[in-house]
């Protein structure tokens, strides 16, 4: 048969590789800065853009979508061409994908720091960027499928199954979770509210971990590990079963982020059991990775690439065992909202994602520049710095998590809470400091890698187009006796469709009843929509990223009810577009903050938190006292809310600002009584209005029922 | 050597096994008898399911036992033809093994009883004793099945060609590695050509190793766990959901606190509180005041965010009982402190606040609320009741 000659496109791989390295450093720096702010709030510089609430989303988005995203594309563009024995479908699409993605990242960084956020974790980007992501993702899909359809290899290798499942699932997650109604160019409200928004968000959030940080990286592992170790993959049938089981089960696990919340119990239980079932499918990937190294362990001692991979896969195994265990209700009860979770995700992030990316880069750069790595010794040092960094990062946080939860839950024998919330924070500050030392070591290691790769690149000569040859595919009628799964490996589109069906099931079963069955969210008649001023205040709350440190979800625990008040009910959140339940309590829960303190307390607290609670690590928000509230947006916001079903009276948008001014004047007057002179048109007034409202509606109902009973 | 010898295990072992099976059966009867009155237990679906499961497992044990005796008989015939070897060590080994499983059973039931005594919970209508003993029996039956399967496998393995056996022996020389290989069902690296698949992708070949057994059974176990979990929480309602769990924990805690306070005799509340002028009480009260109150009322009580505490005007009553109540339960912007401080501490801080009366600190806040004099005391509770 005639052999065809063609060239692999290394240039696009190089571009994505550079982007990976750059955004690794940027994302880690943002993370380190945010970590330092937790014990040294002054490092927020008192500027809106550099305060934790905006820096933290920048860190998570930069690491997930910029660093790991570019790492995925680097690996996919390199391996897909070679596994399909074909050049990428279209160079033009490759470059549109590359520049499109980098533009999205830059736009994301700028808008997040400016405070444009949808307030949903890992999906903070506003609607124009959401649309851009969708378009670029489609470009990537076309380019990937174009390449697959032009392949010179009849069957698809397991890495490509993972790429396909990743592509289709991420598309589904992103589109469903990003349903939002635009208010203005850079402001929108989530389509969903309260419990439903939480369910959709964590279905998305959990599967961002699953299908952005796990499945594509497993695909990369299946390519780069056997290549680097020069060993056959351990088990084909393990690949098959763990692939299908993993993608099917993963999608169900989202509700484990919402255990003991106002989410209906049945959904919580589904989250728990499917998470537990995930242990072995996840471990299938780990086993196939580690067992592939059987007979090559002597190489692991020598080769930094394999060293990184072994630790990465081990971290993957640990994180995927820990995750399911954290989904058990009794473990979630102590771990959720605490630093334990931060430690857990960083075992995955630093260990699995980071180390896989480093391994891939150390493998690829010498290959593409036709030379050897500049210094193996330096890479080994990077490996040790990184490993020690991970340990120093995670261990203190596990400790901090345990300590803090225990302090939260401790009662005196007289039945009082033993510790103030603030005591539980100041007590773990040494752990926070150690954590940032661990992070610094890890970052230092990454910088060593930059230098090492730079020296390698300088020494080598870049092979932009790598020559290869293979025979074209011929139509074959019979394949003889073969494994049943080979059938679908010849049919990329069938694989795509079947993957989509498999990942649809979990989401459909969990979400549709939560949307359609009314008993899941019992109505509370005293819960009313926010006033225009409160709505504006809520948008400020979202803008400043308060949810990154404060939850608004009191779980039905004795200590939480004693500390914060009546536990949260599903019906309280029906007008919350988006929900703001949060996932971490660096500060106390705010679900019942309303009417707890005087207006002047909030005013002083925002100006300088330590003045009201000495020792507080909350950053100051002095700009809220100076900025004038943008009331021009009020009518549009009211109209958007009406479209989402919030029962404001018809025509309310026209009178909303009058209502807003009245309420603002009243707050200003109350502040004046407490010797605080401030005009009523400042942002702080709106924020105070919102904070004084949060969680109070249900108190009205209780008072009403008290009056009812006294009347009788 | 031990494993090799094990292959020769035969009838005596089987007798022990059957005895064990009988024991468990008897045990299960005993357990049922030990449970709550028979009729109620037998009406219970959970009990019926568990008993059915026990019986099915028993049948499986019986059949496996038959199979094992059959295979062993054939083996024995063969064995007699070849030269005889001492069977004693084998018996000892298997005996040990069985003893082990027996002791596991003993431990199981011991813990089951302990837990049963400690808990008076019920499981799907079954008493804890009955539930745990049934579960223990099922567990033991499963162990017996495992032992049987293990022995059957050993007997069957002896049929394999001698060459493979020596290879295996070689590998087993390093016992930990051998155990690891068997645990994962590894194919030795030298033989992997046999299971290499006939395709490669960019030079990557694939083997078709069997699934590690522990992986596969672990996966099944998690699925079974999932079914039981959902069944307990959402079908049989035998486990408490979040809200019930909360109510149970609060009830328990309340009882504990009540018992503690009764024991300690420190049961001051808003009805019994009196003004204290004791210096120690006032010092304690001042400590709490400095920690909790100064942010709003200023250290001299002159008021800032909160009202002036030193003048004659009170928003919610100025007698000790009203002040105690205001501190304990809070009022609008005034937070409630009952979750942070004990009644005794609240009484102390209330006394301290009263001691500030009339100090006229500089820069004090203007008067708020009603003029309060001792003789007005009767009106204050009425004001409180109105909220």
Question: What does the model show?
Answer:
The complex is a heterodimer of chains A (712) and B (387). In chain A, α5 packs antiparallel against α7, α5 runs parallel beside α8 (236-250) and α10 (279-292) packs antiparallel against α12 (304-326). In chain A, 65% of the residues lie in helices and 3% in strands. By secondary structure, chain A is mainly α. Chain A is built from 28 helices and four strands. Chain A folds into two domains: 4-476 and 488-510, Cytochrome C Oxidase, Chain A, CATH 1.20.210; 532-711, Cytochrome c-like domain (Cytochrome Bc1 Complex, Chain D, domain 2), CATH 1.10.760. Chain A has a two-stranded antiparallel ribbon. Chain B is mostly helical and 387 residues long. Among the domains of chain B are: 2-159, no CATH class; 279-385, Cytochrome Bc1 Complex, Chain D, domain 2 (Orthogonal Bundle). Helices cover 64% and strands 5% of the residues of chain B. Chain B has 15 helices and six strands. Chain B has helices at 2-6, 11-34, 38-43, 45-81, 88-118, 128-157, 162-172, 175-184, 213-234, 242-264, 279-292, 294-297, 320-329, 343-355, 379-385; strands at 122-123, 126-127, 196-201, 204-207, 313-314, 370-371. A two-stranded antiparallel ribbon of chain B has the order 1-2. The termini of chain B are far apart. Chains A and B meet through α2, α7, α8, α9 and α10 of A and β3, β4, α9 and α10 of B.
